[in-house]
Amino acid sequence: MEETIHARHPDPEKQGVNISKTKYDLMRSAIEAALTNEDELTFIELTNKVRKSLTGSFDGSIEWYLVTVKLDMEAQGIIERIPGRTQRLRLVQEPQEG
Predict the structure, then answer these.
(1) What is the pLDDT of residues 14-23, one digit of tens each?
(2) Residues 73-95: pLDDT tens digits?
(3) What distance, in Å, lies between the first and last C-alpha atoms of the chain?
(4) Distance, CA of 87 to CA of 92 (rounded, Å)
(5) Are 40 and 88 in contact (CB under 8 A)?
(6) pLDDT, tens digit, 9 for 90 and up, residues 57-73
(7) Distance between CA 66 and CA 43 in Å, rounded?
(8) Distance of CA 73 to CAs 24, 42, 83, Å?
(9) Predicted pLDDT of residue 95
């Protein structure tokens, strides 16, 4: 049986979801790589970078997993949304070695 991880939501009123740990780790690495050396990215810029890095090597909806893992990373304080009309994100913690 495949190992899963519980991806949390930054809003404690909302439930997270259980997803494949392998897919979580791939997506988290892609998000961290996209945000590393960037002050901030819009959600669309992040999506485009992650899609470019994972297309052809990721089984499943890149966009769905991106949103799910991004929310979990927000809940953990690894990335944060920058207040404003357009959703902008930045890395708060250094990426994990792996």
Answers:
(1) 999 999 999 9
(2) 999 999 999 988 889 999 997 66
(3) 23
(4) 16
(5) yes
(6) 999 999 999 999 999 99
(7) 10
(8) 11, 16, 17
(9) 65
Q: Is the pLDDT of residue 97 over 90?
A: no
Please state, in angstroms and rounded to a whole number, the distance separating the CA atoms of residues 45 and 31.
11
Instruction: Please state, in angstroms and rounded to a whole number, the distance separating the CA atoms of residues 1 and 33.
Output: 29
Question: Average pLDDT, stretch 49-53?
Answer: 97
Reading the block at residue 66, the tokens are 């991106």
Using H for helix, E for strand and C for coil, what is the string for the chain?
Answer: CCCEEEECCCCCCCCCEEEEHHHHHHHHHHHHHHHCCCCCEEHHHHHHHHHHHHCCCCCCCHHHHHHHHHHHHHHCCCEEEECCCCCEEEECCCCCCC
Q: What is the pTM of this model?
A: 0.91
Q: Which residues on adjacent β-strands are paired with residue 75?
A: none
- Spatial distance between the Cα atoms of 58 and 29, rounded to a whole number of angstroms: 12
